[in-house]
Design a protein that fits this description.
Number of helices: 10
Largest sheet: 6 strands, mixed
Radius of gyration: 19 Å
Order of helices and strands: EHEEEHEHEHHEEHEEHEHEHHE
CATH class of the largest domain: Alpha Beta
Length: about 250
């Protein structure tokens, strides 16, 4: 059995909470000091994730997106959030979320995305205060980059152009598109792309790639699993919380 506090202490070294955005709520969502043999990793906290943690005996869930973003005035068992919080407390399960602090970590979202693409990082992309946002990658595989992205379920906007350098920002990164234009980059990979973003990419002769918010961030869970299993003698399991469904 491993202390849940020690596991979170290690996560905080990977992604220190002080690097989170001002609006964010990275950190403990529910804190119960305990020991565990199993840890659940997920992008989002859902009732199914909590149910699985209860069934499997896991006493710690680590999510990317916080389950609580703003203050709550009451815990009501008739509300979705309230019901989930009550079940967590009743079963002595802690929840810790590492969000924008993990986005900017050198073992975080964008490093994991670069590794999934199999392309080398050559420099930082954008900066917020003293924090790095995303990376510029060298495309050393030519047009194969389009095939790799297609295999990952990418949606392409703009134009298919030759790519020598590209930028990545996992999650929701369209607020940094002007940086792509000003730096003369050929391709930008992010999530949450809108129709008129695609129009702008077309006008600028840029290949704009939407991996979706979930699809551009999910690779960090594999990286966290690897790091945690190297550090501790625990079972780490990833639960898929992609909210898309198909008919």
């Amino acid at each position: 059995m491993t202390s849940t506090e020690k596991i979170i202490e290690y996560i905080r070294k990977i992604a220190p909470e002080q690097y989170q955005e001002e609006w964010d709520n990275s950190g403990y969502q529910v804190r119960i000091k305990n020991e565990t043999e199993k840890v659940i990793l997920c992008m989002d906290i859902t009732d199914k994730v909590i149910d699985y943690a209860v069934e499997s005996g896991a006493k710690l869930i680590i999510s990317h997106h916080p389950m609580i973003f703003t203050g709550i005035k009451r815990i009501d068992e008739d509300s979705y959030l309230g019901k989930n919080i009550i079940k967590l407390i009743e079963n002595k399960i802690s929840v810790y979320s590492s969000h924008t602090s993990l986005d900017v970590s050198d073992k975080g979202v964008n490093v994991a995305l670069a590794e999934a693409l199999g392309l080398p990082i050559i420099e930082n992309f954008a900066m917020t205060d003293s924090t790095t946002i995303g990376y510029v990658l060298e495309n050393n595989i030519g047009d194969e980059i389009y095939e790799r992205l297609n295999a990952l379920g990418a949606i392409f906007y703009g134009k298919k152009v030759p790519v020598d350098k590209l930028a990545i920002v996992g999650g929701s990164g369209m607020s940094y598109f002007e940086e792509v234009v000003s730096r003369g980059l050929n391709m930008y990979i992010t999530g949450d792309v809108k129709h008129h973003d695609g129009q702008r990419a077309y006008e600028e002769n840029i290949s704009l790639v939407d991996l979706t918010h979930y699809g551009s961030e999910k690779f960090v869970l594999d990286k966290l699993k690897e790091l945690l299993e190297e550090k501790f003698t625990i079972d780490v399991e990833i639960i898929d919380t992609n909210f898309k469904f198909y008919i």
